[in-house]
Amino acid sequence: MLFGVLSAHGRSRRNLASAFIGEIVAAMDSLEECAQIKQLARTRTGGNEIPIDFHDFDLPRFAVYEANASQLGLFNPPLPRELAYFYTRLGALPKRLRGLTSPASISEEEARRRTQDALDDVARTMQLGEDLLRSIKEFVSNKQPHSISRA
Predict the structure, then answer these.
(1) Residue 48's domain spans which residues?
(2) What is the dihedral of CA 40, 46, 50, 56, to 10 degrees?
(3) Number of independent structural domains in the chain
(4) 150 or 66: whose pLDDT is higher?
């Protein structure tokens, strides 16, 4: 009887980990494919000073996280904290990028600094996602954990 409960716990954790992997990869892909972020990177490297409008930028709803936040206890610390931090940071990213749009009265140097800060923010969020994927993959596949990646 006890063995059946433990294996059910393990299956629940594996299934939840698999769902988180899918959602994290989808969110990261949407960031990578975002036209405004690509344009922001080109602005930094190409000197193009066209203001970028992030008002319509949004990320997909985090349905897996929202529905299963109460189940984070299936994972050992610090993974629940890391998941919560990643999703909170990712969810706040559109608002931070919308704040990048600034009045025309700022200096060129300030505009460059804001652009670099925004790109650093996106890069840090992407790195957090990659780190999470490495942490979560051990719960999904013991035989081939290296096969779970975005590459």
Answers:
(1) 2-140
(2) -20
(3) 1
(4) 66
